[in-house]
Design a protein that fits this description.
binds magnesium ion, binds adenosine-5'-triphosphate, 10 helices, alpha/beta, 2 domains, Rossmann fold, 283 residues, four-stranded antiparallel beta sheet
Length: 283
């Protein structure tokens, strides 16, 4: 540890400052073991460039996420939002730039599996649950590091693991459906199950790409409550087009346009930004 412990009284939440600079303000929670988050910054991206056959998907992108922050990323189609998540999870290697998880993990150097094991969980838009297995079994499988389905299901759960699954079932409101085959769940419930499958792995940073697409209004509202309850204990990066949803959850919003950060701040501030109105919100 290079940093001195911060006295309790100095770690009051300062949402307006969270994640906006190199010394992004953490919101006062521990980031978990093994991850050094000096300055309370869980994710550091600096001058990231990604080109696909000469097409610049990300250009000089700099972004910091504070520990425990709930950041929304918005921007028109093709802005580079999914590419940004691909860089963070090691799926796409940047041509240049710095990408660190805490101070510990250089995301440009380690593989996708190591990045996931380091504590970055990602949810894609389309749910990828095992339809023939029960809700409980899906969570059980996600919790195991050995990904062989049958080996995992045969291995006995410890009491602690079972308690964690029970806790997550309650969090995602699927307690009553624990024995149902996942294939019988509604689209929204499958999305919640997949969020649960991330939660049982206790990731410190959750990346969620368009989580409420295709959800009913009630499911969207529940998702907003869920994400707010996850923030602080976890850090969240949420890509979403639904502005009502973004407005209901965001501490802080980053607007991407043509692979660059166009604006950053509260949703009100970015919605009032002339450049943002021009390229995006006013369309
Ligand atoms: N593997 C790839 N090869 C070539 N071009 C790509 C690749 N991945 C993304 N792109 C291009 O990079 C740009 C950014 O794409 P990206 O998927 O990151 O946008 P997005 O902001 O997630 O858009 P949407 O809101 O539609 O999901 C797009 O023009 C896309 O066509
Ligand atoms: Mg996308």
């Amino acid at each position: 540890m290079r940093s001195a412990p911060i006295p309790e009284m100095l770690i009051e939440p300062i949402p307006d400052a969270a994640g906006s600079a190199r010394d992004a303000i953490g919101l006062g929670q521990s980031a978990g073991s093994g991850l050094n988050t000096r300055h309370g910054t869980i994710l550091t991206l600096e001058d990231i460039n990604v080109s696909f056959d000469g097409f610049k998907a990300l250009t000089d992108l700099t972004l910091y996420i504070g520990v425990g922050e709930l950041r929304c990323i918005i921007g028109p189609n093709g802005a580079g939002k999914t590419t940004l998540m691909d860089v963070i999870t090691g799926k796409t290697r940047p041509n240049s730039g710095v990408a660190f998880f805490g101070e510990t993990f250089d995301l440009t150097q380690i593989g996708e599996v190591e990045i996931a094991q380091a504590g970055i969980g990602r949810k894609f838009q389309k749910p990828t649950v095992f339809e023939a297995l029960s809700v409980f079994e899906n969570l059980e499988l996600a919790q195991k590091t050995d990904k062989s389905v049958w080996a995992s299901l045969r291995a006995r759960l410890s009491g602690e693991q079972r308690d964690r699954i029970d806790e997550v079932l309650a969090t995602i409101h699927l307690d009553a459906s624990r024995q149902r085959p996942a294939g019988l769940l509604s689209h929204g419930q499958k999305q919640f199950l997949e969020i649960g499958m991330l939660l049982v792995q206790d990731p410190q940073l959750l990346l969620l790409d368009e989580p409420v697409a295709g959800m009913t209004d009630a499911e969207t509202e529940f998702t907003a409550e869920l994400f707010k309850s996850l923030a602080r204990k976890h850090s969240l990066m949420v890509v979403e087009h639904d502005m009502g949803f973004v407005g209901s959850i965001a501490d802080h919003v980053t607007v991407l346009h043509q692979g660059r950060v166009l604006a950053e701040g509260s949703l009100d501030a970015v919605q009032a930004n002339e450049k943002v109105i021009e390229v995006y919100l006013g369309r």
